[in-house]
Amino acid sequence: MKLHTYFRSSAAYRVRIALQLKGIGYDPAFVHLTRGGGEQHGPVFRALNPSELVPVLETDDGAVLSQSLAIIEWLEETHPSPPLLAQDPTTRAQIRAFALAIACDIHPLNNLRVLQYLKRNLGQEQATIDAWYRHWIGVGLPPLEAILQRAGGAGPFCFGAEPSLADICLVPQLANARRYACPLDALPLLLRAEAACRALPAFQAAAPEAQPDAA
């Protein structure tokens, strides 16, 4: 398996976590998203993924998969242990809803290409872009805290005693929030789940600072 990844991409970070949790080995192929205008825009990578986004997973049988949640669902179906989704249908739907709130509602507004468009095309100052980023983090994270409160908050992870797809999406999103100095003190259940995740070797091995291309 080959994973096309970038150390700071939160979407690629999600897939790295899932691969590590499931103990699946892979060959990393590093795609630098800012060097030389962004290697993802070059013809070689564009031929692999016309959307010009990471991550991309090339499977052992030659399939090319994109979109982090689709890749993780494929990993779940082909390597079901340990499970990343609950057996109970209601909890499984809650985990998916939590993950999608990050992947569909928060992350796209603050993705690199959006931030670059604000600067390059709309001429916004960096301070304005940073305020944009913090605004959408501030709008998006409190509802996730409320979801965990409503779910009972037993912990230590988002939905119980084991990490799930929800945690896989949460940890990269909180890492991004810290990069932009977003206040997080009012989110104790999210922070508790993050701390439980960061204590696990799988999350440590997948972290941006542990990637070879972070140097």
Word description of this protein:
It comes from Limobrevibacterium gyesilva. Belongs to the GST superfamily. Zeta family. There is one protein chain. Helices cover 53% and strands 7% of the residues. It has nine helices and four strands. It has two domains: 81 residues, Glutaredoxin, CATH 3.40.30.10; 114 residues, Glutathione S-transferase Yfyf (Class Pi), Chain A, domain 2 (Up-down Bundle), CATH 1.20.1050. It has a four-stranded mixed beta sheet, covered by helices on one side. Helix 4 runs parallel beside helix 7. With 215 residues, the chain is α+β, with helices and mostly antiparallel strands.
Strand order of the largest sheet: 2-1-3-4
Alpha carbon gyration radius: 17 Å
- What is the highest CATH level, the class of the largest domain? Mainly Alpha
Number of strands: 4
Q: Which descriptor suits the 3D outline?
A: globular
Mean pLDDT: 97
Compressed to H and E, one letter per element, the order equals EHEHEEHHHHHHH
Strand content: 5-15%
Quaternary structure of the protein: single chain
Question: What is the CATH topology descriptor of the largest domain?
Answer: Glutathione S-transferase Yfyf (Class Pi), Chain A, domain 2
Q: Could you estimate the helical fraction of the residues in percent?
A: 40-55%
Structural class: alpha+beta
Give the biggest beta sheet. Answer: 4 strands, mixed
Quickly count the helices.
9
Count of structural domains: 2
Distance between the first and last residues' Cα: 23 Å
Low-confidence stretches: none
Organism: Limobrevibacterium gyesilva
Protein name: Maleylacetoacetate isomerase
InterPro entries: Glutathione-S-Trfase_C-like, Glutathione-S-Trfase_C_sf, Glutathione_S-Trfase, Glutathione_S-Trfase_N, GST_Zeta, GST_Zeta_C, GST_Zeta_N, Thioredoxin-like_sf
EC number: 5.2.1.2
